[in-house]
Structure prediction request, 398 residues.
Amino acid sequence: MNPRLDQLHPYPFQKLRELLAGTEPNPELAAINLSIGEPKHPTPGFIRDALVGGLDGLANYPITQGSDALRAAIAGWAARRYGVTLDPASEVLPVNGSREALFAFAQAAVDSTRHGRRTVVSPNPFYQIYEGATLLAGARPFFLNTLPENGFTMDWSRVPEDLWDSISLVYVCSPGNPTGKVMTLDEWRTLFALADRHGFVIAADECYSEIYFDEAHPPLGALTASHQLGRGCRNLVVFNSLSKRSNVPGLRSGMVAGDAEVLKKFLLYRTYHGSAMSPAVQAASIAAWNDEAHVLDNRRQYAAKFAAVIPLLRDVLSFDAPDAAFYLWARVPGGDDAAFARGLYAQQHVTVLPGSFLARDAAGANPGKGFVRIALVDTLDACVEAAERIAAFVTEAA
Prediction:
């Protein structure tokens, strides 16, 4: 077996199961699970209908590049959302969810033939796929802590100057998981300048981009920023997904867009990887990318939950309202995030994710320690009840 598999860490939810094993939750309270970012809003009926209507396509092998209609739908959405014109033939690829693509991209992007080009940078805390993809590509991760004192931004000045020319790939996540932080144009300008100077590729994970709270100010996307700065898509690849946007995590459908030369190589890799999207899933995806009404309704539901939950938790937990996404990244009393999560589960039957499970020790600290991630993915009533239970738990422990 590949010895690099031994470098992989247990997934955060495996660690959570181990943390809670043997703990009996309060039997008088129904379970409320806010630990995983799995949307609970109903899948729109028209997407389900399109999936069923596409079943005749199961008689054909799909091509890895996806249908012309699907790539045109994705390019059309990008034009409406980001104000950019993408060539559907060379600057867009459908993928089986952003998770699969974020992992696969590192396997194609890391230059394992040159010992000096084997560093991958990622935020810390982070989506664990970044680390696993890095390790299995034979690269070494370099973590940039995102902390309250720097506004949860990636501080590029902390990268040693002699490390830059060893970097093949930089993962960024905006809106951020778990902080909800959105990168500004100035932050993108700095990162693009570094990529142009040192020749690395940027993998921009934007799977939370459509969960935001101000319709007049959607989160700035990497494609928009790059085009505003006059650099096209050079060394930039953006990943997005229908899972959060359209409440279809089980559909496993997303997209990759950006630098045509990079995507040409990535398509070659994917042709061998066997990652073509089912024709039925393509049909459902076309319907989803072409409709915005259901996404607007989705945002309204999340906005209502944040408006109801934040006042209930403001006096018992320390947090900033996120720029976007559906998480609260909250500092817990006492600083022991694992003990907090275990106690909350036992006493109030509410599950949250310890922040330290989402991070690694870097620069002398685990930046997730003392935080929990609360995913407001359940119904409004369930989220409100969970917030009331969390407040009761903290108050009783004080």
